[in-house]
Each structure stands twice: as structure tokens, then as C-alpha cells.
Amino acid sequence: MSAVTSENLRPIGTPSEQLVAAARWRWFEFLFWGIAILCGLSMFAPMLGFNVPIIPSKMMLMSEILILGLLALSIDLCLGYAGLVTLGQGAFFGIGAYTAGLLAKHGAGVAPLSDPILGLLAAGLVAGFVGFATSFLVLRGSDLTRLMVTLGVALIVEELVNKLKDITGGSDGLQGVMSSPILGIWEFDLFGKTAFWYTLIVVFVCFWFCRRLVNSSYGYSLRAIKGNALRARAIGVPVNARLIQVYTLAAAIAGIAGGLLAQTTQFASPDMVAFHRSADSLLMVIFGGAGYLYGGLIGSVVFRIMQDFLSNITPQYWLFWVGVVLVLLVLFVRNGIIGLLSAAVSRSKGAGK
Amino acid sequence: MADLLKVEGLRAGYGEALVLNGISLRLEAGRAMALLGRNGTGKTTLINTIVGATRWRGGSILFDGNEMTRLRSDQRAHRGIGWVPQERNIFKSLTVDENLTAIMRPGPWNLKRLYEMFPRLAERRRNMGNQLSGGEQQMLAVARALALNPRLLLLDEPLEGLAPIIVDELLAALRKIIREEQMAAIVVEQSAKKILPLTDSVVILERGAVVYDGESEALAQDADTMSRLLGVAERGGH
């Protein structure tokens, strides 16, 4: 055992220096966002005379994947960091969708009301407020109670959307959602080109914020809660306050995701608050791997592409195959796809030595 | 000097079971107390009750003059009670650095000083909690309690199950913390021989009640009382 040298003490100095080091961007993160940008750039390929199959015609699908990824990210914040299971994130997604949708619909022509960015902020605020109001329910009880309580909140919201026909349009959905051009310049087009870049930027900003958060002492305290809430509290982590904050934040992010979907598809429907939203997005996190932030994003890509691909082959039974993949993943792989990849990387590194 | 901690008529336990039956003790700021007693006499329960991890049934815990029994355990921690639990309870999915920064509060005990106190931890800063040896986990548990910058440190059998060389290292660190840094502390220990030289006062529990409360030095001289109240505990030691 050696004495403490200035060498191994220097980089830590202050907690903030140490946090910056922990939050350094890694190569696979550049790869991930690079691929996302490339997917977007491929829309220009036909103009340059290249023929890239598939992608340019799938702009809407890619936006949707990003949006679902953002929803899954909000679940990961709860589940993967604070250990808070939730089966009701669809409620906040739907609340965000209807908030942004109603603003755009009734504010048409009145510039500040139908402004998409303000619409997203409103979606996040309203969903965050409902999240805060219901967060107190989540504080009580075990995982199972939480699953049931969050599910209950989602079902209430779903039924409200169906019943309040005058406001929400009921089961017909909210027609005529027309946002003004983004920053007054870029109009949403029929092929979803503007929508894709808009979505990518919003998702990245939300992701970047969460990334900063989880790589701070705040994020560590969340993981301490996930490890053992009772002990974390006695050691000095204000568990209740943290859970309320993270649940509220996750609700706001889910609301922003919902707002994005309403704006980019120019439509809001009860399908956006339906139970399967909550369940699907939880599946995406489990597919991708909880507790990495990228798990939800990668999970949404795999899940949505699988859904697209399988439902083309077998429109009736695609869900069966999703189930098979899920069972196999849970049985044989720890921490989903990311767990699979990181195991492969460390194995190849080990072999190289 | 005013009491930092004043426990009076404290009764507490788990569920329906009552373990502590009217405990009273006091500790001045900057002083250290050894908490001794045979197995199952309520030492750990007393520590757990002070941090708020048991069911409180009556009596009072005054910390710096403020009643603590109604406070949540995180609020007690923020008032200045640092706890080193018997099971150590390191956060396994966090690195050493992260374990410390997760709960760090401003004060003299920053990362640099903690790593100077525990050089072994400095070497393993980037290791996850579950990659540490028992001794390293114990050091991390102590360092983590200090990172809270507490005014009172509660150590529950910090030397239990550690290799002799680690015991010496940890004792040296505790001596620095208690003697040089004047950190008030209550140390639960099986071995009176090891802990009496470190502390000012000593309390011995039996069946959930205080049966001895005096100066550490006096008890160390008093072989009769020691063998009567602690019996086998001293024979083997660690």
C-alpha cells in the first residue's frame, strides 16, 4: 500500500472536478448521436442523386422512435436510477400530447399560443404538475403498490380523455392540430423532415439535461436510494424529496415527449394515453437496459423497428414475437441490449490483453 | 459544557418487541463514548434508534438541545448525525468516489481530506462498492459518514470481522478522528481493551438498560466490574 501521492489526489480536488471527469463523453455516445444525425441527413440523399433505400421515406417513423425513446428515458430516470417502478408514464405522455395539441388547435393564428416550443414547455409544465400532485401516492408502499397506483392514475387519465369529449374530442381524437412554424421560420412539412430535426434537437436537449443530472452527486444519491432506500435515508439522503423530484421531472419529460408527438403528427388521440403506451415504454427500457439513459433510446429503436418489421410479416401475431424476444432477453441477458453489448466489449478487450 | 447528545428514558424496539427499556445517557461535544455490553443487550438498537431506524416508544433524544424523536432519519443526518452501520451498507452499484459525493455536505471533511485519512480508499476511488474488501468497505462506511460533516459519529462495531492489520489501521484513523479532530463519537465494540483507550466515557448495557456509566480510564482499571458485566467478551477479544 502506497502513501497518498499528489498524483492520485489531484484529479479529485473538488467534487465538481470529479463530476466533470465522470461525465466525459464516451466514443459510443458520439456513435449513437452520429448515427441519429446521419439518419436525418439521409433525407438529402435523393437531391444529391444517391439512392438510399428505406430511410428517407421513414422520416415520420424515425421521429416517432425518438419520441418513444424520450418517453422511455423518462421511465429510466425513475426505474433505472431511483428504483421507482412506474406503469403509468403513458398518462403524462398523453397529458403532454393533449396540452400541446389543444394549444396548437385553439391558438392557431395567435402566434404565441401555437408556437411549438412554448407548446412543449406548456406540455412539460402541465404533465410535471400532475406528476407532482400524484407523486405523493408513489412515496407510500412497495414496488407492487407503486405499479398499481401508477397504473390507476393512468387509467383515470385515459378515462377522462374519453369522457371529456367537448375538450378532447373523445375517441375521435383531437383534429386540426396545427403548430406555427418553429421560431417563425421552419414549417412542419408533410414528409416530417422539419419534424425529425425538431424532434432530434428536443430529445437531445432533454437527454443532455438528464445526463448532467445522473452524473452529479444528485444522481448518485438517486442510485443510493435504488440500492437501499431505508439505509440511504439514515445515511443522509432525503429520500422522499428525491423521489418526488425525480417523479415530477420524469412526468415533465414524458409530457414533452407527448407534446412532440402531437405536434409532429398534428393529432392527439386517446391512443396516446392508452395503457399500452405505459407498458410498451417500460418494455423498451427493459429491452435496452435500465440505468444507462441510452437503454430507453436503444430499446425504442429496437422495439419500434421490430414492431414495424414483424407487423409487416405477420400483422396478427407480431406481439407474440415481441414476447418471445422479451422472454429470451430477460432469461439470458442481464441489463438488456446494453448489457449484452458491454459484455461483448469487455470480453473482446479481455481477449486482446 | 452543554451536552451534544442527551438521551432520557428512551424506549424503543422493532415491531411489537421492546428492546430498549428506559435508556439515559449524555455526551458532551468533542468527547467519545464506548458503548459496551454482551451480545443482544441493545447496543445496536440504541444506535439505530438515535438515527431513527427503529420503532420509537417513548423517552427523548436531545441533540444539541433539539428533540429528535419525531424527525425522519434523513433530517437527523442533516442535523449532524453520521452513522456507520454494522452491516456497513456500502452502495454496491456506486464507485468509492460516488458513494462519498452522493451525500457529501459542505464542511471541513472534503474528498481530499477523506482520502488523506484513508489512503487505501484513494487507491480504489474508481472501484465499485462491491469490489472492495471488508476492511475497505468499513473504511468507506466511516469516510461516508464523515462526508456528511456530522457533529456526532455513531460507529457500530467498526472492527468486527476485520484482519488484524486492518484493525490497527482503522483504529489509528479513528484515533485521529476522535482525538485530533475532536469529533464526538459513540463506538459500539465487543472488545473493551481496544476501545477504552480511545474513549473518554463508557456505557455498558444489559437487557436494554444502562448498568454502568463512567469514565473509560476508571473502567479499564476495574477488572472486577469488567468481568462481571462483560464476561466472555473480553477474554478472546479480536
Give the arrangement of secondary structure elements:
The complex is a heterodimer of chains A (353) and B (238).
Chain A lengths: L5 H4 L5 H8 L4 H15 L3 H4 L10 H24 L6 H18 L4 H4 L1 H24 L3 H21 L1 H4 L24 H22 L2 H11 L1 H7 L3 H27 L9 H14 L5 H20 L4 H15 L3 H17 L1
Helix pairs in contact in A: 5-11, 5-12, 5-14, 5-15, 5-16, 6-8, 6-9, 6-14, 6-15, 8-9, 8-14, 11-14, 12-13, 15-16, 15-18, 16-17
Chain B lengths: L2 E12 L2 E12 L3 E5 L6 H9 L3 E9 L2 E2 L5 H7 L1 E4 L11 H6 L9 H7 L1 H5 L10 H14 L4 E5 L7 H17 L3 E5 L3 H4 L5 E6 L2 E7 H6 L1 H7 L2 H5 L2
Parallel strand pairs in B: 3-8, 3-9, 6-7, 7-8
Antiparallel strand pairs in B: 1-2, 1-4, 4-5, 9-10
Could you please describe the fold and organization of this structure?
The complex is a heterodimer of chains A (353) and B (238). Chain A is mainly alpha-helical. Chain A has a domain at 38-276. Chain A is built from 18 helices and no strands. Chain A is globular, with a radius of gyration of 21 Å. Mean pLDDT of chain A is 83; it is low at 1-15. By secondary structure, chain B is an alpha/beta fold. Chain B has one domain: P-loop containing nucleotide triphosphate hydrolases (Rossmann fold), CATH 3.40.50. Chain B contains eleven helices and ten strands. Chain B has helices at 43-51, 73-79, 96-101, 111-117, 119-123, 134-147, 164-180, 192-195, 216-221, 223-229, 232-236; strands spanning 3-14, 17-28, 32-36, 55-63, 66-67, 81-84, 152-156, 184-188, 201-206, 209-215. Chain B has a six-stranded mixed sheet, sandwiched between helices. Chain B has a four-stranded antiparallel sheet with strand order 2-1-4-5, with helices on one face. Residues 233-238 of chain B have low confidence and may be disordered. The chains are: A mainly alpha (353), B alpha/beta (238). Chain A binds chain B through residues 1-4, 8-9, 12-15, 18-19, 22, 217, 220-221, 223-224, 226-228, 230-240, and chain B through 51-53, 72-78, 82-83, 85, 89, 91-94, 97-99, 101-105, 110-112, 115-116, 119-120, 122-123, 125, 144-145, 148.
